[in-house]
Write a structure and sequence with these properties.
about 15% strand; elongated; Peroxidase, domain 1; 8 helices
């Protein structure tokens, strides 16, 4: 619980700065890129998260990382420096998620995941996105995944709501109905 409240506090402060500069999407993109770099590089995450390294060493790595990314938003750069100073870089993934969620809520967006047995055609995915937008009355950003165990059909998780039209679920419901008779 402490992790979430700390992450929310930093994310809210960063969002306020990003909204003021009208650079919310740029900050979100750069923040998620930094988190991906941390997740993909064991050495980088070790240097930044291991307390055996000094604060100045972590600060040098963050500065070099920002130099590689180039044109890091000033609010994000200051937040990263603050996280280094306060030994809170470990919260960066949580801050990124909280920031994205808060930015989406401010922009009237919601994220969702569409799962299908086979890859969906781009037209079908776009039609599904439009239908979900009508249902939710918000802009929907969809991520597509495949799960062969679905057999057919599609399930969509948008926010906290699951729209399940998969063949597996329909067969399971039919089995329960027949069992009750």
């Amino acid at each position: 619980m402490v992790n979430v409240s700390i992450a929310r506090r930093y994310a809210r402060a960063l969002l306020d700065v990003a909204l003021e500069a009208q650079r919310t999407d740029a900050v979100a993109d750069q923040l998620s890129s930094l988190v991906k770099a941390l997740e993909q590089s064991r050495e980088l995450s070790d240097v930044l998260l291991n307390p055996a390294y000094s604060r100045s060493q972590r600060s040098q790595v963050i500065e070099a990382l920002m130099g590689l990314v180039g044109n890091v938003e000033p609010g994000l750069a200051n937040t990263l420096r603050l996280l280094v100073d306060r030994n809170r870089l470990i919260y960066l993934p949580d801050i990124s998620r909280a920031f994205r969620d808060m930015a989406d809520a401010k922009a009237g967006r919601v994220r969702g995941v569409v799962t299908s047995a086979a890859p969906l055609h781009a037209d079908a995915l776009e039609q599904l996105r439009k239908n979900l937008q009508q249902l939710t009355q918000r802009d929907v950003i969809l991520e597509s995944r495949q799960d062969p165990s679905l057999l057919g059909g599609v399930s969509a998780q948008v926010g906290s709501v699951l729209y399940d039209g998969s063949v597996r679920t329909q067969l399971e419901q039919l089995r329960r109905d027949l069992k009750q008779r």
